[in-house]
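Hi L.,

You mentioned the student needs an example of a multi-chain input paired with its predicted structure. This one should do, with 244 residues in total across all chains.
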Amino acid sequence: MKGKRDSTGFLIKQRAFLKLYLLTSIEKEPWYGLQLLDELKASFKPYGFVPQHSEVYRALHDLTEDGILSRKKVKENGSKYKEVAVYSIADKEEAKAYKKLVKADLDRCEQLLRKALKDNFS
Amino acid sequence: MKGKRDSTGFLIKQRAFLKLYLLTSIEKEPWYGLQLLDELKASFKPYGFVPQHSEVYRALHDLTEDGILSRKKVKENGSKYKEVAVYSIADKEEAKAYKKLVKADLDRCEQLLRKALKDNFS
DNA sequence: TGATGAACAGACTGTTCATCT
DNA sequence: AGATGAACAGTCTGTTCATCA
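Structure written out for the whole complex:
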């Protein structure tokens, strides 16, 4: 994974958080960037979190560099003739392994937040 | 509060998180910086989070600038004659209000993490 | 050495700009 | 306008440096 750490000790980074969601979506079926972004924006809006397009692209690029995703330019034969970058899972094992890592970090973060709520409000 | 935001949409910032703990500790009794740091380090070690001294100082400075804490240089008459910066609550109402704000953000973050665990692992 | 604080540097992310269809 | 990507800029935080008792 190129020595990049997703966690620096405190809470999980947005990048890793998005990667997790991207993998889960793409596992179900291939998507392209802005499509995924719209889905994420809608999903998180109630929580006051609005991911930006560049961060989603960076997450997709990272996952591709790591060989977890593969990217294919596809000519959309719909109403418009336009190329989009469609992503699909390239390495299911790696994807699974990465998600497992993130899950561990999410669990840790949840415990940390719970602790803070308990320590400061009870 | 000088227009500074503690939350930028994703998860709570370390600074705000530490401020919360600092206020709770200082509410009980006045402390000085490194003393608080040691307490925090011990408390979070099991969670893989190791706060650094500069971040704690910055948090204390912020709270002082905002008028929530007051700082007093105290000559320690113990084994060593040395000055430490002891903090105490300057404005109980403001402290309470700030903690309330942070609590709301912590709750939001916890929901976001729960959602992520649910959306991606079930 | 313990304590405080500032300065510096790097990581992360939001905003803007550029390109192409 | 929709889609992608790069470049730039600002914020947050970790490391280092400086000072003082």
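You could point out the following to them. Chain B has four helices and three strands. The domain at 14-121 of chain B is CATH 1.10.10.10 (Arc Repressor Mutant, subunit A).

Best wishes,
N.
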